[in-house]
Prior knowledge:
Layout: E1 7-11, E2 16-21, E3 26-32, E4 38-43, E5 49-54, E6 58-63, E7 71-74, E8 80-85, E9 91-96, E10 101-105, E11 110-115, E12 122-127, E13 133-138, E14 143-147, E15 152-157, E16 164-169, E17 175-180, E18 184-189, E19 206-208, E20 214-216, E21 237-238, E22 245-246, H1 265-273, E23 277-282, E24 288-293, E25 299-303
Parallel strand pairs: 7-21, 11-22
Antiparallel strand pairs: 1-2, 2-3, 4-5, 5-6, 6-7, 8-9, 9-10, 10-11, 12-13, 13-14, 14-15, 16-17, 17-18, 18-23, 19-20, 24-25
Amino acid sequence: MSFCSQFLLSGSEDGTARLWSIPLKSDLVAFRGHNHPIWSVAWGPYGHYFVTGSHDSTARIWSTERISPLRILSGHLSDVEATVWHPNCTYVATGSTDLTSRLWDLRVGDCVRVFGTHSGPLQALAFSPNGRYLAMSGNTRDIHVWDIAEGRQVQRLKGHEASVWHLAYSCEGSVLASASADNTVRVWDATTSGGGKKLLGGASPVTATANGTPETSGKADGPAKTSTTPMDTAGSTTGSAAAPAASAPTSAAAGAAFPGGQPSTSARQSQKAESPLLCTLRTKRTPAFYVRFTRKNLMVAAGAYGC
């Protein structure tokens, strides 16, 4: 749904994306270009542009004022099942069944980061509000959080017992929520890494360097600046997939060894206190497929009722 709550976007197995008028209860225009079913659609931060991801292994950038795509983002080797816009509207991230996620610079249509390879298809993506971190998950069950400026993994959140279908950050970025097919919504601390290092305390918004690679702008707080995207005059452009893969750092030891058998009560309490999982919200038998935070920071989750 658009930010003005007047329009709705949909993607279909017929390979089209359609823009619907909610007051008129009818479709206004059909956007054609994909050769196969569309799995994902997402509005841009300001509602003028949107992105689609398809079974044809591409993502496409569209404007509501044109029926042809402005950018064709080509590089994935399989279905593009997740798409999300960066807060500054200059980048788009895509998740695929080829086990990777890619970050695209929309000003030139090129891939500037490759995050992977993961252990399963990626079906859920979310940017932190300051644009510094990208969370991703899917059939992997684990949630991986990457620093997009440095191209390294900073968090790996474990706990779900089935596929993760949706991710959402709270308005201030301190909490990450995940909706899963294991009938739970889990709430995670997004401010610290596994080693206790603060992530968001001095995080800077992400801008772009001259060669299109993301980097921090040097400011500690506030939203990322919006860069003018020369897509309206560039026409339809196929993006390049050439980009270095971002490799995750070597994992440290998960915990200390306890000589003599079981850890003490105080040690177990200390380990529990350091867990990034804040709470688990369970349903009886309803998989959770969607979660979001409202402008007042209330969390809303949705799912299909299980009979």
